[in-house]
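Input record (one chain):
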Amino acid sequence: MTRKDSPVLILGGGAWGLSTALHMVNSGYTDITILERAEQIPSRYSAAWDLNKIVRAEYEDPFYTDLALDAMEGWKTRLFGPYYHQTGYVVAATGRAPQKAIDHLEKALSSISSHPKFAPEIRQLDGAKDFKDHTWQYTGPLTGFKGYFNRIAGYAHSADALKGVWEHCASRGVKFVMGESAGRAVELLYENKTAFPSSSTGTGPQTGTTNRRCIGVRTADGKRHLADTTICALGAYGATLIPSLGNFAVARCWSVAHVQLTESETDYLRGIPTTNVRDLGFFFEPDPKTRLFKLCPLGTGYTNTDSNGLSLPPGDRLPPPQDYIPFEDEQKLRQLLRETFPWMAERPFVDQKLCWFADTADSEYCIDFVPGTDKSLAVLSGDSGHGFKMMPSFGKWVVELLERNEQKRPRWQWRSTDLRGKDWSASVSWRIGQSRELRDLIGDKDKMIKARL
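The corresponding structure, as predicted from the sequence alone:
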């Protein structure tokens, strides 16, 4: 069990790292330091470096439905409330949707329609008239649309939430060391030796026969930061320090794009529900400060697999490709707009990027001690594209781990399986399509540029 006055290092100032610091402070821990590679928070290395993320409780597994409901209560508190917008949530499938998308929609609806909290708040929608009666701003044909509206859902402004919790934690005594040199951990220190140099070997401490304690990290500037407990919350970058994590947690990315709106267009779309069309993509009401309308295609995403079968984000400070999304994703988003807001369908996309996250085959988180480290090194990984909404609650699960000295939930325990080199992306029930490699995307972009020239 970690003593409350002992030094604790948290690697990563994203949603889960900040939530962990918040709940540790609330539980009486007094010596907490966060190392963050970016110069400031919100960090561009965090998957939450974004305008907004969906906050909803539809899950095929009631375990996560209950956790999301608890987190949603946290979003309504004084600390998190300024960033939460309960606009409601429309989930739909088009008349051309594959059966897998329809099946997932029906399972999502079933998960909440019988739930006592949700049942009175669900409205089924069948056909374009139902959708337009509910959301008058939809002006497209909504071809074959079927789905539902859930009032108890919406979105959170993710970048602003990171900034707000960062400032709150700093005011409570959490220390922050930031910057590409001072805040980037490049090596885990392990008693008298280096535990895991940054590499892509796919090996890790569980292959040893004895426990050796992790005593901290070395940062890029050569400084040693010592701690009794080190918590790795680096998201897609976690396996750069703990390669064996990459055996089951894959760095994957999805496309993100925006349309720049005018002030009157932003006002026109104010209050629209967060809309998720399962075979095309999803969007949110536009951000009033930037007047950006964010939308994301749905699919299985893209990996960056090396010769050892390990997927990691590119090592560049700003990973390529920049201001670009794959052609197939752009086509999905254009079709999504033609169906809902055709007046926007041919507008140029701006601020296009790929959002990296840590993905697991069963979409389960990993909140556990790394085997072979004498419970001195914990890892938080596997957000799988549904982790940000848990930010108000997540840290208390880490505190439980530290105080119980073990992960009692089997689903969140460290995995001994090695899935490197296996493409399981299409088997995830809520994703449509086949995964591709980042190098193929960059090749496609280069070909497109050459064709234009």
